[in-house]
Amino acid sequence: VAELLLYEAARAQHTFETIRPALAAGRIVLSERYTLATLAYQGFGRGIDLGTVRSLNGVATGGLKPDLTFLLDMPEAEAVGRARARGPDRLERESLRFHRRVRKGYLALARREPRIVVLDARADRERLRREILARVRLGLKP
Amino acid sequence: VAELLLYEAARAQHTFETIRPALAAGRIVLSERYTLATLAYQGFGRGIDLGTVRSLNGVATGGLKPDLTFLLDMPEAEAVGRARARGPDRLERESLRFHRRVRKGYLALARREPRIVVLDARADRERLRREILARVRLGLKP
Lengths: 142, 142
Fold this sequence. Notes:
Two copies of one chain form a homodimer. By secondary structure, the first copy, chain A, is mainly α. The first copy, chain A, has six helices and two strands; from the N terminus they run αααβααβα. Chain A has a two-stranded parallel sheet with strand order 1-2. The radius of gyration of chain A is 16 Å and the shape is globular.
């Protein structure tokens, strides 16, 4: 619960000091991980009630939601291998079972929200880049 | 909002690692400031919605509430003077107007909850000690 609240504290400062002013200035904001990650890691991974996580996400962001989310998905063993190779953080050091819950959570959330685009993270990097750009441009059409 | 979430993160760790195990071991726990302080400072002082603060208090403590709360009250100018003399923290450095809102908030909350005992903090220290002890003993009676 303390971990969840620390992530939300960081998110509140990031949202109110960086993201909202950038949006107000008409910029496009790309953020690596946002409220969806907290639902997946602290909700599905840690087992904290999803309603609680959603409510804290709302407090931390003042209700701000992304227009589009890209979920770069791959089998958890491979993802953990990648993370370990570059030096894992607190969450990345968790068990494979934890990461399986997180991945299942992400995919369950993606099935319910059309704004979440699931991409195969094992695909060629250049192909992924083009796919993401095309989706973003589609979303920017008036 | 980030400040509020940081206080709640600290409270969650303090509650789950220190307070709850002590209560489970049958100890009496005395804590200087708890959820009421967050309602007064971040709710009334900072102007964050009281329902939001209450809900975060609930998440951080898992619903744990003190049996008894002592509010050591004095005029805000005098309290700020005391704090400045010993080196004020982030909240104590706030304006007198801020501290007026906090004090009003504390007193309004105390009027609604019988478990909050308001004491005059300008009273003699020994008299305050005796008054607090008497109240605690009253509360401990089976």
